[in-house]
Amino acid sequence: MSETDQSIVVEGVPTFPEVLQHVVRPTDPVIGTVVESRVCTKSKKAAGFVRHIEIDVSGTALEGAWVSGQSFGVVPPGLTEAGKPHKLRLYSIAAPTGGETGDGTIISTTLKRVVDEHWEDHTLFQGLCSNYLADLQIGDKVHLTGPAGKRFLLPADPAAHNYIFIATGTGIAPFRSMLGDLVKLGMPSRVDLIMGVPYESDLLYDEDFKELAEDYPGRFHYRTAISRHTTPGQPKKLYVQGRLQEDASVLVEILKSDRTLIYICGIAGMELGILQTLAGVLDPKSLSQYLTIDPEIGTDPGRWNRKMIPRTLKPTKRMFLEVY
Ligand code: A2P
Question: Is 279 a pocket residue for ligand 1 (Cβ < 6 Å)?
């Protein structure tokens, strides 16, 4: 960080609650039981296979141990080609603090099957853990660790902030989780959720978010960005940053407020586009609430590139990125 950066004071920086981490370690995972596995895309015929999976962890050290925004680990069964146990995979928790039933017993995630081709010989590639989890049936056992994560959380005083949540695909999981907590508090703040998917049929938990928008008019705003086709309400194809741009007349006012926090979760490629769009719609002072720009790279967003994140394009403590 340069000396110039250190002199920048960002108002409205939140404090975070102390949370438990790594209560259950990979060397000694707990065993949970699958109690729910359902398709959670808008259409059952969506191009991507995405499931909402709930796991009962009652009586284990994971029970009640997580807060919204954290992740848990899954240890897939079997051994690697080298004969070693598989490494754990982290999944964002989709359930609020207290879980699906409020008593800390049911953890959940949003899971997409990874199905692809090996580029070298065009044979089928199947993600090991995502397909293992998506195949599980009600009653099946699964080895779990966690919780993990202490940055991508709601602040200690959720009511003190407004939120812009930006997700693509299964990056929606932590926002479903945090929204569950905000609902329990009676939705004390304004939340704008921007959700990006390839096709309208891929929208996740779509009905739930629409209901939430009806339940909390003026508080919860559900904004979608469909990238591969137009819709009656969306006359051109949009990425999430395109939706930010389209809705700027409303969102800029929210972004200018020193109460607002931005959370971004999903595909890594969106980071740069979002930062460039923020730079395009915000005046320099408002932008500096979210982004510290090294003077050496200049303020022309068209000249920025992904490698500049997070060193020379450095998110402040008012913007949180969880991309993969
Ligand atoms: P596309 O694949 O049409 O380029 P999913 O996880 O369900 O595949 O959704 C990821 C979403 O993020 C898709 O709509 C995808 O669009 C979109 N996406 C891909 N690259 C970027 C990018 N650089 N910036 C923003 N969104 C992106």
Answer: no
Among the four given CATH numbers 2.130.10.10, 3.40.50.80, 3.40.50.2300, 3.20.20.70, the one describing domain 154-323:
3.40.50.80
- 202 Cβ below 6 A of ligand 1: yes
Assessment of whether the complete model's pTM goes beyond 0.85: yes
Place of tokens 């790594």: 22
User: Quick count: other Cβ atoms within 10 Å of Cβ 301?
Assistant: 18
Pocket test for ligand 1, best of 168, 205, 224 (most atoms within 8 A of CB): 168
Atom number of ligand 1 nearest to Cα 170? 6
Instruction: Find, among 26, 23, 53, the residue nearest to 148 by Cα.
Output: 23
How confident is the model over 160-175, as pLDDT tens digits?
Answer: 999 999 999 999 999 9
Confidence of residue 8 (pLDDT cuts 50, 70, 90): low
pLDDT at 6 over 50: no
CA distance 134 to 136: 6
Three-class DSSP category at 106? strand
Whether ligand 1 lies within 6 angstroms of the CB of 130 is answered as no
Interval 249-303: pLDDT, tens: 999 999 999 999 999 999 999 999 999 999 999 999 999 999 999 999 988 999 9
Decide if 313 contacts 297 (C-beta within 8 A).
yes
Domain locations along the chain: 30-148, 154-323
Q: How far is the CA of 227 from the centre of ligand 1 (A)?
A: 7
Provide the total of helices (H) and of strands (E) in the chain, helices listed first.
8, 15
Say how many Å lie between the CA of residue 168 and the centre of ligand 1.
Answer: 7
What topology does CATH give the domain 30-148? Elongation Factor Tu (Ef-tu); domain 3 (2.40.30)
**Ligand 1 centroid vs 33 CA: distance in angstroms?**
32
